[in-house]
Amino acid sequence: MDAGHHFNGRGKRPSDFGQEAETGVGKYCPFCPGNEDKTPPELLAYHDPGREKNAKGWWVRVVANKYPALQIEGTLNRQGEGMYDKMNGIGAHEVVIETADHAKDFPDLEAKKAEDVVWAYRDRIMDLKKDARFEYILVFKNKGRRQGPRSPIRIPS
Fold first, then answer.
1. What span, in angstroms and rounded, lies between the C-alpha atoms of 156 and 104?
2. What's the pTM?
């Protein structure tokens, strides 16, 4: 965590409950097709025609982070405190599931599927830019257990 930033109220993470999750490709994953009910409702999905929302048949899917560092609800409530500004942490914390196939990373995707991933990022950025409270948008990518979520499954990049 940055020295200049502190986020209060972040929800408990799966590792806080002391359960060992199954690991590896082919094991349980809340991001896999068929487990759409295990994530927050989708904000965006690239999918087969006629597919119902929050169902199988997608190849790119975006959901709100179940354990967000920032939340979209609330106001900034900016206040001066000495030479510093103090404000609430307001923002969006989303998960872009770039592929439904755990065996593939971004470079392994067909060109059209990779293009759809880029368009999904663009679509979400354009939507978030409509909120005047957001002064900047930061996209970062977690890959692997040590870099991102503490769940020991391999999350498609």
1. 7
2. 0.74
Residues with Cβ < 8 Å from 66, sequence gap 6 or more? 11, 39, 40
Give the integer Cα–Cα distance in Å for 33 and 143.
Answer: 19
Tokens of 20: 């060992």
Residue 87 has pLDDT above 80, yes or no: yes
Beta strands in 20-140 (DSSP E): 42-47, 58-64, 79-81, 84-86, 94-97
| CB 36 within 8 Å of CB 42 | yes
Helix, strand, coil % in the chain, rounded to nearest 5: 20, 15, 65
Name 42's Cβ contacts closer than 8 Å, sequence gap at least 6: 36, 53, 54, 58, 61, 62, 63
DSSP code for 26: T
Which 3 state secondary structure label does DSSP give 100? coil
